[in-house]
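Quick one, probably user error.
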């Protein structure tokens, strides 16, 4: 078995950064997890959440070896756009999702921007 495969097999969690409704829905779907160091794989963001808290959570989730996917509400992703655009690793994959109050805008999605660049659009 190759070294890359063994690194990927330990990535079995989905992390989420988003508004209360999005995070609650995903927790009810079963993605919630707290590891042995009492670190959670989710962050609820509201109007009072400091930008530094969001940035720290994103950096922590991208450095963890047990997270395969990070789901982030697109309106929250806009606040930390430079961090998201700077993340160029395959794992964890960062996916922007809509929220109840903020519709999805494909023009803002960093993944779609990269795909368009790849295809020369």
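Nope, works fine. Designed sequence:
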């Amino acid at each position: 078995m190759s070294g890359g495969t063994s690194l990927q097999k330990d990535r079995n969690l989905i992390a989420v950064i988003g508004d209360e409704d999005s995070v609650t829905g995903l927790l009810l779907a079963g993605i919630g997890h707290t590891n042995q160091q009492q670190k959670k794989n989710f962050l609820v963001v509201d109007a009072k959440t400091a930008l530094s808290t969001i940035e720290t959570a994103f950096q922590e989730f991208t450095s963890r070896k047990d997270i395969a996917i990070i789901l982030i509400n697109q309106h929250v992703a806009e606040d930390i756009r430079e961090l998201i655009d700077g993340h160029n690793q395959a794992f964890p994959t960062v996916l922007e999702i809509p929220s109840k109050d903020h519709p999805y805008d494909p023009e803002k999605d960093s993944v779609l921007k990269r795909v368009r660049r790849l295809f020369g659009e």
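The mean pLDDT is 87.
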